[in-house]
Design goal:
The complex is a heterodimer. By secondary structure, chain A is mainly beta. Chain A has no helices and nine strands. Chain A starts with 8 loop residues before the first strand and ends with a strand. Helix content of chain B is 0%, strand content 57%. The chains are: A mainly beta, B mainly beta.
Chain lengths: 107, 124
């Protein structure tokens, strides 16, 4: 079955650039979305349609796509960006699926 | 205020049944794709089920044949009936509204509004 693959963890120091990848064979044909989830809270959309940023999301969050890999980039990561990040997309059967999640540590 | 409020979670024995409810405010559930998403303790997000505006449904393989999604348009409420529950169904269950659009025969949607979640624990 179709899967989205993310690294389990990424660690950066404050002010550095964090990059979280998401690999999936259907990503060239289907949009990637990114969610941020802080402990005990519901997820929040931070990137939609590969690279668009919802209103209210800081400019340091950006998204890109190259072939079968989507990337979430946080330029100048802040301590408050520490969270779990999930990529999301759909498959050819219109099933919704999430990547396994990446724990971002900023310290 | 636009929001989703889930209820109905609790402790249930393996093999048992439970029905979750999600009341929507500020929009009509009948006019949006609506989904249930779950998260097992310490684990990632897993999409569970979807009901389209036209009323047909879709399910993750892990729950197909055991769970049923439905809605009551008059009460603006979404439901998830869960039967034959197993220990690995233990999770926080979120109700989520899908936002997006269709263009040229393709639809692009994402979870744009989430509830606060309700915990389901399957244990003897």
């Amino acid at each position: 079955s179709y899967e989205l693959t993310q690294p389990p963890s990424v660690s950066v120091s404050p002010g550095q650039t964090a990059r979280i990848t998401c690999s999936g064979d259907a990503l060239p044909k289907k949009y990637a979305y990114w969610y941020q989830q802080k402990s005990g809270q519901a997820p929040v959309l931070v990137i939609y349609e590969d690279s668009k940023r919802p209103s209210g999301i800081p400019e340091r969050f950006s998204g890109s796509i190259s072939g079968t890999m989507a990337t979430l980039t946080i330029t100048g990561a802040q301590v408050e960006d520490e969270a779990d990040y999930y990529c999301y997309s759909t498959d050819s059967s219109d099933n919704r699926l999430f990547g396994g999640g990446t724990k971002l540590t900023v310290l | 205020e636009v929001q989703l409020v889930e209820s109905g979670g609790g402790l249930v024995q393996p093999g048992g049944s439970l029905t979750l409810s999600c009341v929507a405010s500020g929009f009509s559930v009948s006019g949006k794709y609506m989904s249930w998403v779950r998260q097992a303790p310490g684990k990632g997000l897993e999409w569970v089920s979807l009901i389209y505006t036209r009323g047909d449904t879709n399910y993750a393989d892990s729950v197909k044949g055991r769970f049923t999604i439905s809605r009551d348009n008059s009460r603006n409420e979404l439901f998830l009936q869960m039967n034959s529950l197993r220990a690995d169904d233990t999770a926080v269950y979120y109700c989520a509204r899908e936002d997006g659009y269709c263009r040229g025969g393709d639809c692009y949607s994402y979870f744009g509004l989430w509830g606060q979640g309700t915990l389901v624990t399957v244990s003897s």
